[in-house]
Specification:
- The chain has 208 residues and is an alpha/beta fold.
- Helix content is 35%, strand content 19%.
- The protein contains eight helices and seven strands.
- A seven-stranded mixed β-sheet has the order 3-2-1-4-5-7-6, sandwiched between helices.
Length: 208
């Protein structure tokens, strides 16, 4: 199934290809013990979870040395796929549920990611500064902004100003309303042709 990833990211190294390839068996194994992906959805791992996470990489090409916080990572999305794709970027993955973070840690260790740092931590308790915060449908945008505003670094390293990059679905008008002047919403079907991405799937970028 890595062919799906290579279709949109053809420049993968052999190591990256192998890391993506390994995700299937690892997530199947861990999901049987600790449910981090819907059992019905595990067969769609690469499309619905890995490629979906990588939509963020179509909005920004993180520069080496960038620090990214994955807020509410669950079993490691979008953090682990992004950490594979950007080996010179540091990713901290946090979640308030310890067993989910354990899955992210075990998967990260198994594929040899040295730039991925899962930690059992609530967002309110995160003190570090990051260039970007990424998340996948964790909570409404205004609530997320309240929690992570404190974690956005002032110094800029990327083409996009520091801020939040969220993967969201459905009707987002209400959520985006408070930020309508600055939020940028990109339809993921602009990047990926699979029918699943045509069902109101977006990357929201909010400079902070």
């Amino acid at each position: 199934m890595t062919a799906l990833i290579e279709k949109y990211f053809p420049q993968l190294t052999d190591i990256q290809r192998q890391q993506f390839q390994s995700l299937d068996a690892l997530y199947r194994d861990w999901n049987a013990k600790i449910n981090v992906i819907s059992r019905k959805d595990i067969d769609n791992l690469y499309e619905h979870h890995v490629l979906h996470s990588l939509a963020i990489a179509k909005v920004i090409n993180f520069r080496p040395g960038t620090h990214v916080l994955d807020f509410g990572t669950g079993g490691g999305f979008p953090g682990i796929p992004l950490a594979i794709l950007f080996p010179e970027v540091q990713f901290k993955l946090i979640d308030g549920t310890g067993k989910k973070i354990r899955v992210a840690q075990e998967v990260s260790n198994a594929i040899g990611l040295t730039n991925c740092h899962p930690e059992h931590l609530r967002g309110e308790d995160e003190k570090d500064k990051f260039d970007f915060v990424v998340s996948r449908a964790v909570m409404p945008l205004p609530d997320l902004v309240k929690i992570v505003r404190k974690n956005i670094a002032k110094t800029q390293h990327n083409a996009l100003p520091n801020g939040i990059l969220c993967l969201k679905g459905g009707n987002l008008q209400g959520e985006i309303q408070p930020f309508y002047k600055i939020a940028q919403t990109t339809d993921i079907s602009n990047f990926f042709a699979e029918p699943w991405f045509k069902e109101q799937k977006y990357v929201i970028y909010l400079p902070i």
